[in-house]
Amino acid sequence: MNTIIYLDNASTTPTDKRVIKKMLPFFSENFANPATKWTSSLSKLVDEEVEQARLNIAKLLGADPDEIFFTSGGTESDNTALKGIAFKHHDRGNEIISIPIEHEAVLKSLETLEGFGFKIKFARVDSKGFVDPEEIKRLITKKTILVSIMHANNEIGTIEPIEEIGKICRERDIYFHTDAVQTVGHIPINVKSFNVDLLSLSAHKFYGPKGVGAIYVRKGVKVKPFMDGGGQEKGIRSGTLNTTGIIGLGEAARLASEEMEQTESDVKKMRDLLWDKIQKQIPKVYLNGAEIDSRLSNNLNIIIKGIRNEPLLVALNERGVIAGGGSACAAGSKYPSHVLKSIGVKDNDIFGALRITIGKFNKIEYVDYVVQSLNEIVNSLRDLSPFWEGE
Ligand SMILES: Cc1ncc(COP(=O)(O)O)c(C=O)c1O
What we know:
By secondary structure, the chain is an alpha/beta fold. The protein has two domains: 5-12 and 260-384, Aspartate Aminotransferase, domain 1 (Alpha-Beta Complex); 17-255, Aspartate Aminotransferase, domain 2, CATH 3.40.640. It is 39% helix and 13% strand. The strands form three sheets. The chain has a seven-stranded mixed sheet with strand order 2-8-7-6-5-3-4, with helices on both faces. Strands 9-10-12 form a three-stranded antiparallel sheet, covered by helices on one side. Strands 1-11 form a two-stranded parallel sheet. Pyridoxal-5'-phosphate (PLP) is lined by residues 73-75, 78, 103, 105, 150, 154, 179, 181-182, 202, 213, 327-329.
């Protein structure tokens, strides 16, 4: 097959051509720095587009535009949220609560904070990846200043009970951050009903450009900036604005607001058909994480017994199918996925995990080709596999 069938959309998505079109003039004729908007009409024009982008993001989240701050992406937003709160409010306490299946951007930030004397407590997740809000309640003490729980997991698509956790934190006056990198632009979000104080998002996960994102910081919440400089973004994030990226992010947000419902339903239809056919055609294949209907609609994460995922991914790639083994950041890692480990999947099985994440540009007509390719490759790998014990 000459076409590439890209099924790794949780890793990154292709930039929507409408987003690129919107961005293009801001590389060349509209190149000005919005910081000089008071004196330059060109800067003013760029500034207006940046503010439109802020408004589009705010609308997507149910926030006010002045609660949105642009960053370089999900990693920076997570770092800003965790370190920004911890360093600003350490006089209130030194305990932070999270879960072990967070993205590395959160886990590594927490590790750094531990080095500064913060105490990190991890709430358990069950075999489907859900955290129990009661467990969070139990871990909270007078010293807890921050709870950070991701909205949906990037490997297994489990959607955490954010509203309930937000309520628990708000009632106790504890800051609550959610990494919503996998959900913004895909499913409805409302920062008010979620009771979040901080939320991270990234453009490239919802058909925007790479290297740009944003953080929502609820009005009145103070964070210590970790970039020193010219004081852009009200001092929260210094540095000349990535105007093209921000305008692309804004356009991606606008399109997501308009098309989310249809996109989610199309993506779910394709994911469900794929899973149905895989189960019918390939024996000993198991779902990782939440039940198929209570996870992100684009996510399928499976264990294929008796194989290793690297040769599978390479062979799929040779047939034009690109999928994932775990998170993109852990790709090529010889260590088993920390997410699958945390939900109790055995090491041998983890190495046979396949993550398929559907996007809006995938075509449902390709499902048969994908399943047939998968079936043939799995059969030949199992024939050679010392781990395959038969059906
Ligand atoms: C849940 C989650 N958080 C954070 C990130 C990091 O985002 P970015 O690639 O924009 O730095 C990712 C990217 O894989 C993610 O899936």
